[in-house]
Design brief:
alpha+beta; 8 helices; 2 domains; 11 strands
Length: 241
Amino acid sequence: MDASEIGALERDTVAAVAPPQTLEIGGWLVPLDNGTIGRAKSAVPLSHDVGPDALGEIEAVYRDRGLKPAFRMADVPSLQPVCAELARRGFSAQQPTVFKTGSIAQLAAFSEGSARVLNKPDDAWGAVFLGEGFDPADGAHRVAALTCSPDAVYGAAGEGGETQAVGVMSFGARWAGIHGMRTAPAHRGKGLASAILAALGRAAQARGVSQVFLQVEEANPARAIYRRAGFMPVWRYHYWR
């Protein structure tokens, strides 16, 4: 990917999680939030060829607002000087996460299972994030952030007319993005997440969108579902905190 495409991806990624304020400083996107979503509160370079010059200013911006400085850094050779400077400043790499991209056409054909696509999330959609097996504070913040995405649709699936799995598709300037995939623990392995992914893919097709991205923590078993849906890794990143 060239710098323009990387920048578009990062802008669309941050916009989808709706931080209250986002600044641009020296080639970095600096979202300002005090919630639980890492992407909404970690500075990220808009290309993979930036240097460490702006780190001090970014760190000061976070601290001046009472926020903990954090940086989201791709594990690519060109950013190693930045990572070295972060380490010198006392930051450490945490939470390895894989950034993947895929084809909307392949995603739309992934499953024939039944799922609904909502223009606005209902109470049952939000209740999945707050249910057994999930951190309630984190869930509440994710519901608040994801329902504020400036342009998004919401997937829901379940048995017996209930909502037992959910997801979000955001629409940015160039890319669609998958976020907030959650399935209630008692209902995993039933194909509900696959049905949601395909339904969201068809919603993107209807808009003429051809490319989609997502992020998944390296240890998350959901990576297998995304792999079957055609998502391929483009880079791994860490949160430097």
